[in-house]
């Protein structure tokens, strides 16, 4: 079965890989990988355990890379939202640890806004709002507390997309995010600038920075400050945020000898959004526990799925008219020592020739307003639309 087998790439095929097959940047450590030694297309279900199919395959692939002469080999790539689906991981031929400052975005003086041939939202506005109302009915019936509902903006352009130019734009407009470029098995490329760190492991130290509760930024400084304070005081957004933080704390507590979780969230901002943010830090009881194990222990969090997880995932399956794939999955890396970093795949999209698919979601709780949640997804789509040079006016009917 394809979802329980590691695929070995021939030397000839690996040599034909792009110059940079994977890129992940963060304030902590940035990785640029080249070529492919082995692809690992395994389900991440149960992969919080060291003896799982996925973790065993990753260790074996890393060991084979070490025998070929690599020093401290790594596994890189992405894991889908639905961990029952095959992962999109690989061990590269080589990699560099780089300074993010060295990735100076290229100026696009000659850049021309692409011509949009067709655009559609999946689902459309009324369908999304209906899904929000149906989720709220479930909350009122006491079946669950939160569900994250999302949509995809599918855009066809007149010309082929330059993925490198898009990544440069993301680096320039979101310098503090977690940037990623990852090749996918179907030939597409996953690009994004996520604000959300799922997990970082460095020795026995760990860090997680869940975000939940958002508000669109505005141009006027005074109004923007008012928006941020209103978010910080919002009972609806604080309730949504608390669900996420408590779930992550409880998931990490059994593997930590020290775990610190602030009592109240702080504010984080991007170019387009304000977010409620909590920085969770800890010390592992056993530093042999890898970053990939920790990521699989946490994913999917209530920030991208809901609470409780089984019920919210079932509701998402019923209400969303598409398969998320890697959207709201996780992307990152883990080395032979178990150190690594994984971000949540939001503020992202896929590029495949002239077709781009952008993703945005919103956390729905009982106090949610369908129109406001639609507007929130539209605001979140702004990050990628600007990177592609697409005027929001061309997408007005979908935002």
UniProtKB/TrEMBL annotation:
GO terms for molecular function: isochorismate synthase activity. It catalyses: chorismate = isochorismate. The keyword Isomerase applies. The keyword Isomerase applies. It comes from the Bacteria. Its EC number is 5.4.4.2. This is isochorismate synthase. It comes from Methylocystis borbori.
